[in-house]
Model the fold of this input.
Amino acid sequence: MKISINDQILEADEGESILNIARANGIYIPALCYLSGCSPTLACRLCMVEANGKVVYSCNAKAKEDMQIYTNTPEIAAERNAIMQTYCVNHPIQCGVCDKSGECELQNLTTHLKVNEQKFAIADTHKPHKKWGLINYDPALCIVCERCVTVCKDRIGESALKTVPRGVEVPKELKESMPKDAYAVFSKMQKSLIGPSVGESLDCSFCGECISVCPTGALISSHFQYSTNIWELNPIPAANPHQSDCELIYYDVKEKSTSDRSKQIYRVSNDFTFGEISGAARFGYDFHNELACKNEEKFEEIVLNIKNGAIKNIKFNSFITNEEALILERLREKFDLNLINNEALNYQKFLNKFSEFSGLSSYNADYEDIKKSDFIITAGSFLRHESPVTSFKLNNALKMNKAAGIYFHHIADEIVKKYSKNFIYVTHEAGKLEQILLFILKNWGENLPIALTSKLTNFDENFGLDIQALSEGKSKFTLILGSDFYTDENANLLAALTGVIVRATPFRVMLIPPRTNSLGVAKICTLTSEKKPGKTLGYNENGDYKFSIFEGDIDTSALNQQEGTFTSINNALVPTNVAIPHKGYFLNDIANTLGLMAMAKDTIDYTPNLPKEKGYKGIKFDDLENFYANDSTSHRGYKLEISNFTPKEDIESLFKEKNEPNLKDGEALVSLANPINLPSFFANYATQTAKRAKLYASSEFMAKFEISQNEAIILEKDEHKLAICVELDSELGGVAAYLGDYDDKLDVGVIFNGKSYAPVKIIKAKDE
Done:
């Protein structure tokens, strides 16, 4: 349909808000409370426009065919000016020291709307500052726009903030002297503040998105507060180094002082209009080694041992760039090395088998699919912990798209249970993954392989769900699967079933990469679990030689010290840039010394050489873009090509008996999962996110084994023992506990042995 804004004819979708249409077409309408992809609150009323002769609020008003809209009539300009005057009543005039000064939307709009007088006044009351851990709240700066409340509810899904009564009444005489909208805004601001939804302390995952969306600096990072002026910072566009969303971030950098010219990251910011980031991305930024140096003797020893064949293995993880993955692959080819990365290997095997049975070179769902979906199933992922941003996208679809769906997992997440009444949480026995996929095929599958049709004939597991009622009227389906599938003993079967789901049901499928660049490593590297006779070079892993950020024989760079690219969860190549200089070695230094590629001065010289047969496009790093357009279109790198081919049909041979977890007396099922903002040891070296290793347990778990808070216990598995303290996680339901691998001083591998969960004996440390 067509509408007119300021006499400009525009194309628009039926039901789209006037404000979003204007923004997508570069037409400015002021707004302080509205967030794209969230429900409108009409708190600020600045977005008023004239539509077909009537004043409406453009954040809430839907466009209609041939609508005539004007965004800035004299009457509207006067109303907006009066509203801005009310916002400036008693607002501290301390812009020189305010942490938001320089990017404050209130500051900008006061100037833009030409507020040069103040007609209204009211005596102010004391509003004490609040300290909520990683976040501080200054109510004197708060304009009660409710952005923080909205983003937490509609995007993040935690609803940790709300408006609370302030206890101030607006004098009635002001109502007669103020314009209607200005009075409404002023009254709300005087009567309300922002506070935690429950209690006096903020109980949330501390993603920090409320900080990002706050227009005035009322909510601010406690670590960043009073540390620098905004205008002194240099924003470096990059990608989240901690998780596979690889969302756009900015490392905000400046020199430490006049006497110390070394660079320092002061904070991480994001383009909150189009993408959210996790707490690890926002707060876990200072994980580089400032004391890194070059040990030429040890470097030469390692290079010589690769060259003469003494080093036969390289063990590494997926917190690396695509370019580093390609260097490792070429080292493997040239020097007959084994590349060992068990996490990526499991994921690679699953992807390969999935491809065989789907006829696709990769999975086919991305965040845009989740956004548009009206029916979503997720399984095999402790989602908020494994991929927080994916959980944000899921929650947003439930809230804004009125989606329905099912969440399958053996750990009950009490926060996810509250996402939507139409999003059903099914807590099942660990390992029941085959049944979930067969359940999907039974209810939505068509033209299935004969062997599978026969298998489903006697399959009657429906998990107590009324599928017809839940999915009635739904047309856009997405299936999200996580790490439990990749490590399952029947992973080949599960991958094949998932492949059949892609081609035989309406579901588009997303396979969450377990680490930042697991997808890139799986596409680029030839991996094995076998170790060749000879020495091992550990790249940020243990080995006979260790090339590591911390405590290595030679020092390598952190991901905030590298130029390069990741392959994100969206099957997209995205760039990341150097925030902090590195004084040690890069993997490319080893490659160059060994003559791996001529003319490869920098690691990014490998970017155009990424394998085209895997979907990469051969574009140079410096030609890659990294931003979102006003219409939300992503200009971040490029999407990989997904090829099609004839899928396999013979699935019958993959079915086999499986050993289900069998708990004995005194045993419990413990899952491998990290705290939400601690996805790896990199984040555990960051100042604001670091924690000592804990077993995180539900209240029912602690009650069953009579464990108190911070009590030391011993986990015993196959004669291996691991001492650990227990911490209550109030978000867990049932008898549940999880243990992370973020503490590189603790070898959790002896407990899990490459699996996602393990039965362990619980022993009181005092009884040992």
Q: What stands out?
A: The longest strand covers residues 720-728. The chain is about 25% helix and 20% strand.
